[in-house]
């Protein structure tokens, strides 16, 4: 099920449970900006002076490996944030953020972000949960990338997405094949070849922006 776009800041998960006065105070600190497809919001290694919240569109966080290949760490959709540890002594961007499609984001300055988190226990608690979820996501990514077999990386990615999907027979894939390849750390041609091999084995079926899982147990056996 597609997430409803957060047209208001109260729809952002991080701000759930805050009072109208608290939301109004945060709203005065937000600055909205539009980014074209492929435009960078910030670059890896640069000084981080603000966090952002996706109002609409999709933004990828990625790093470039020693081989020059791009590895997507996370894809942020409407309502999600790049928010990091407000207590960090140094703020440097650990990754590059780039709009995958035309996107609108809200920016919150470092100063305002730190003050809001430190003075609001509800928001701090929610932020801790967000960090825990992100850590789990990164742990899964490390496990996937550590699998040297590209087919296993792809199969695990599909099964993980299936586990999160409400429809247990189909996956709606919002990514291009290039993005999917970057998510699992392989070349686009490799990802495409592995997808078609799984299709020939009748384990999956490929539709536009959709992958049907025909044999879940068969996929599990490949791991």
Question: Can you tell me about this structure?
Answer:
The structure is a single chain. The chain is α+β, with helices and mostly antiparallel strands and 223 residues long. It has 7 helices and 10 strands. The chain has helices at 20-27, 110-119, 121-146, 150-164, 177-184, 188-200, 216-221; strands spanning 31-35, 40-42, 50-56, 59-64, 70-76, 96-99, 103-109, 170-172, 204-207, 210-213. A 4-stranded antiparallel sheet has the order 2-6-4-5. Strands 1-7-3 form a 3-stranded antiparallel sheet. A 3-stranded antiparallel sheet has the order 8-10-9. A hairpin with a 5-residue loop joins strand 4 and strand 5. Helix 2 packs across helix 3 (121-146). The radius of gyration is 19 Å and the shape is elongated. The two termini are 28 Å apart. Mean pLDDT is 83; it is low at 1-5.
List keywords for this structure.
single chain; three-stranded antiparallel β-sheet; 10 strands; 223 residues; disordered N terminus; four-stranded antiparallel β-sheet; 39% helix
Strand count, sense and barrel status of the largest sheet are: 4 strands, antiparallel
Percentage of residues in DSSP E strands = 15-25%
* Spatial strand arrangement across the major sheet: 2-6-4-5
Molecular shape: elongated
Order of helices and strands: HEEEEEEEHHHEHHEEH
Distance between the ends:
28 Å
Mean pLDDT, rounded to whole units? 83
Give the helix/strand class. Answer: alpha+beta
Indicate the low-confidence ranges by residue numbers. 1-5
Helix content: 25-40%
Enumerate how many helices there are, as a single number: 7
For the secondary structure, the number of strands is 10
Radius of gyration: 19 Å
